[in-house]
Amino acid sequence: MPKPILFLLQGAGIELIYSFVIIMCSLMIYYSTREMYELSSYKGIKYFRQAFLLFAVAYFFKSFIKVLLVYFETSRIIDISPRFMGSATLFLFMFFGSLAVFYLVYSLMWKKWNGQSKTILAIFYVVSIIISFIIITTKQIEIFIGVSVFIFAVAIFGLYITHKQSHDKKKKSNITIIYTLLFIFWILNIIEVLIPIRQGFYQILLYLASLGVFLIILYKVLKKSGSD
Amino acid sequence: MKKRARLEIIRDILRTIQENKNSIRQTPLLRKSNISTSKFKEYFRELIEKGFVKEISGSSGERKIALTEKGFNFLERYKTIINFIEEFEL
Fold first, then answer.
1. Extended beta strands in chain A, E state
2. Most exposed of A52, A59, A225, B69 (fewest Cβ within 10 Å)?
């Protein structure tokens, strides 16, 4: 049987397509907001763009590296143990993904934390490294869930503060719901990586829901940035 | 009176230049911008550095300020940028 078909049957094809669409959506968000940032130099837009660039990098490490290593049998060319590569890609996925969530929170909160941006961002980097390190060194599911709840709590705190301060609560609750869904699906994606549910109905449902959230954000970005 | 945000001040300065047939001296621009001299110098330096405005010679040789293509582009896109910031609560 040719390798690509075997690959698709193994479920890696679905994961690859899923990651590809997420990466494309994230990069489209990043590039469609470039002109607005170049003109305005507005910090909120800067952190928002960086969050989606980091999501693209995270999903690259989630699937593409794995697929490249397995499909092209890289181990025959480079002598690296699959276990080490697995841990390294998981570390990078967790690091860039957590950082993306923190950047998104920061894009909402930067006005409140202005003047301390270097310190706050340094804390986010350190926390992302710690989270990734805990994830790859611990095998306990309770710790995975604890870390997920922590990231989620930070994200919800950011949303709550922003929502509390917003003047037009009715209008803005729309985007708050989308951000909340994005954070929930990020957590579910971490759990899916740590406890793989291969070819299951829930995996496909999770992928479709995550894609839906990313596509809604992309649609809103293209519509509001005048790129549609 | 509500304090103007940074982008709003930039929009007002650029619009003042545009409304003066894209040619105005620095002193009347400062007066019409309705900000302090030190703040104006800060904004003016930023606008020059970002290529939104340029200095030109008037008909009698005096130094005037004019919008560049990027400056006009900012004015065109201002509303979109503000809508985007408001939509995503940035």
1. none
2. B69
**What pTM, to 2 d.p., does this model score?**
0.85
Domain hosting A108: range is: 3-225
Of all residues in chain B, the one with the smallest CA distance to A162 is B89
Enumerate domains of chain B plus CATH numbers: 6-87 (1.10.10.10)
Contact between B89 and A220 using a beta-carbon 8 Å cutoff: no
ipTM topping 0.90:
no
**Of the candidates A39, A107, A162, which has its C-beta nearest B81's C-beta?**
A39
Do the chains contact at B87 and A162, CB–CB below 8 Å? no
Per-residue pLDDT of chain B (90 residues; tens, 9 = 90+): 456 789 999 999 999 999 999 999 999 999 999 899 999 999 999 999 999 999 998 778 888 999 999 999 999 999 999 999 988 888
Query: Which helix H or strand E contains B67, and what residues bound it?
Result: strand B63-67
Q: What is the number of structural domains in chain A?
A: 1
Q: A139-156, pLDDT tens digit by residue?
A: 666 777 777 777 778 777
Buried b (16+ CB within 10 A) or exposed e, B3-34: eeeebebbbebbebbeebebebeeeebbeebe
Q: What's A115's domain CATH number?
A: 1.20.1070.10
- Say if CB B55 and CB B67 are below 8 A apart: no
Does pLDDT of A178 surpass 50?
yes
- Token pair of A92, please? 């990078």
